[in-house]
Amino acid sequence: MNKPIMAKATAVWLVDNTTLTFKQVADFCGLHELEVQGIADGDVAQGVKGFDPIANNQLTQEEIDKAEKDPLHALKLKFNAAAVGEEKRRGPRYTPLSKRQDRPAAILWLVKFHPELSDGQISKLVGTTKPTIQSIRERTHWNISNIQPVDPVALGLTKQSELDAAVQKANEKKAKEGGVMSDDERRKLVSTEQSLGMPDEPKMPTAISGLETFTLSDNDDDEKEEDKFDADTLFNLPDNDDDDEDEKS
């Protein structure tokens, strides 16, 4: 359901000038019922001037009269042919001024860790232009030496769900094209939750490569080998009887 422009100001006007229930006003303006009650009590929207939805071609008096007679009737926004398709307008995402300086770091992170994303997808995620993305891909950006990759979700430039959806879409597109992906690429193309749930592949440390079949002998065999040797066999000491005979002679 479409919402009226200046929703809170419209709610102030409806509370002051009609007998509509709080729920009717809240549903029409996209607010919480308690918030509308706060407007009526003077705790919310103090100093906000009411916005007349009838004079501004958002409601008709007949629709308000019908809703006042039936508390279960939901107000319907007046059809405006000029507003058709306004919500579907496409364009780069608006980025607040305070976060625009973080966009190059976010672009570099997406280019580095998700190279499967197209320039159009990155543009929608962080609200930038394709020439900027291309300059960072080719490392021709004027400040490329000082840019460090930072997760755009951590910077607040996009939501994790939006990033996962874009990655999943890139995954499906690449699968349709029949491209062969490595394990690392396949891990990057899945959502974050799926990636974190994957078990780590066991890897042999490079320092001991080539010793996969090396085994140590059993302890029992070592003990048996040790039993074969004693002090006499090692040093070939003479018997005591020979010493006694030499002393007698």
Automatic annotation (TrEMBL):
Compositional bias annotation for Basic and acidic residues:
170-190
Which residue ranges have biased composition labelled Acidic residues? 239-249
Query: InterPro entries, per this entry?
Result: TrcR
Task: Return the annotated region ranges for Disordered.
Answer: 170-249
A Pfam family the protein falls into: TrcR
Listed name of the protein: Cytoplasmic protein
Native source species: Boseongicola aestuarii
